[in-house]
Each structure stands twice: as structure tokens, then as C-alpha cells.
Amino acid sequence: MTKAKALRGLVLAMGYANVAIGLFHVLLGNAATPGARSAGPTVDSLERFLGAIFAGYGLAWIWAARQSPIPATAVRWLACVFLLGAIGRLLSLAVHGWPHWFQVVLTAIELALPPLFLWLADAEEAALRPADGHAGR
Known about the structure:
Number of strands: 0
Order of helices and strands: HHHHH
Helix content: over 70%
Mean pLDDT: 93
């Protein structure tokens, strides 16, 4: 598989996964997060709001995947936002201790995927560049 195909598949998968996860949180609120069922109406409201934002974030990934070529700048920004989420989780771990095991798994994924996306970000753009590296000549 070429880097360009890997990028397209991962960007699409990221988009659909984030839309699905976001809508899941909008629909279920606290019940969507392990260990948060009794967090109360304030956290439930926040959970549903952030679920909608997460779904919108997924739509941004899908938008990027539908471009030709996939814009490297968009991939880099979206990957960095994802990494920022992981940093937030690490901050929470430092301040409050270990969360539910599933959150630890998500943190590992959120730390692993951004470097992969940053490595692949310009794969389609690079594949479409002329072999001599000079556009328009």
C-alpha cells in the first residue's frame, strides 16, 4: 500500500470514527463515558455538547479526505488538535490520577496516531508533484 492510499484510508477512518463517537456522546450523555454515569446534569450537558463538537471534528476529517489531493496542512492541524486532546488526558492523569482503563487505551491511541498522520500528511500532495520537483515547467 502506498503512503497516499494509507493516508486517504486513515483520514476517512478517523473522520467516520469521530462522527460516530461524537453522536454516541450526544445521544447518551454521561452513559457514553465509562465511570461517568452518575456525574450529574452539568457533566451530562457538557458531555453532550462536546460530543457535538467531536462529531464536527470528524466532519472536518471527512472533508479533508474528500479533497484531491488531501491537504497536508489540514491533516497537520487536525492531527495536532488530536494530540492536544491526549495532552489534556495526560494533564488530567497528573492532577487526578488514573482514569478508567478504557480512557488509558484512548490516551495511547491519541498519542500514537498524530505522529503517523504528521508523517503521512503530504503523501498525496507529494505523489502528485512532478518527478523533477518543479511545478509548471
